[in-house]
Amino acid sequence: MSPEKPRKSKVSSPPRSASSADRHYEHDGRIEYLDRKLAEFGIRIKDADSQKVTGEVFDEVTLLALYKLVNKKIISSMGGSISTGKEANVFLAGKTDENGEEISAAVKIYRLRTGNFTTMSEYILGDPRFAGIRRTHKDIIFAWTKKEYSNLSRTKEAGIPCPTPYAFDRNILVMEFLGEGNIPYPQMRQCLPGTPAEAYEETIGLIRDLYQKARLVHGDLSEYNILTGPDGLILIDMAQAVTPEHPRAYNFLFRDIKNINRFFANKCKTTDEHELFRNIVGEEFFEI
After folding, report:
1. pTM for the full model?
2. Same domain, yes or no: 73 and 169
3. Which pLDDT score is estimated for 97?
4. Which of 12, 22, 114, 188 is deepest in the core (most CB within 10 A)?
């Protein structure tokens, strides 16, 4: 009888660190969980738009912020896409007003993966209202969302036409939907209120009021981010707006004036940019 071979003792292997596949599975699991929680409120994200947009926009951080807004009863339903911009997607949504009636709202979601960090930083880091924020990609986008909410509130309080801001969380801004039915109001480039000369004077008046009453400079004004409503022109896309204390505020203001003059140049008589600039800022610029 041959002797038994000695048995190899079993050595326990070290605990396996989570692989990228495991982490991906956990990440997907959290997203599915948040999607189910939102579905309990009747909100189906996957119905909001195409699968591509869903993947780009509704990541875990965004779904969590959306869940909080739904849980606070700021959003009651979610619809399809209104617009897709360089940094954000805007969706139609439902909101319950103070009378318990369903009204339309706009949900603006700044994309965490594709947001233009460099451009946002230029407007935020020189703004004294946002001094001391961390300079990570995510923190800049969160500050950008808060900044648009703050700028809209300030503009509205000054009596200047803009969407009413309702709430924000992380990279999501909920505001008034500007349109009839489910159709947004047209951009100024598509539809002028009255004659070109009247529209030009109204636009210059908005720039002046924004600076003198709200103490803001839009910073990216053009025919694309002014809407034509039934009562006149409405300013939108206010995230980049800065106070006069921003080191580049006057450069931004002059650029806004030039953009508007360029648009109206072949439509009506325009006023010299330098003259408009002096009329808007008064003696302030020359006292600095």
Report:
1. 0.84
2. yes
3. 86
4. 188
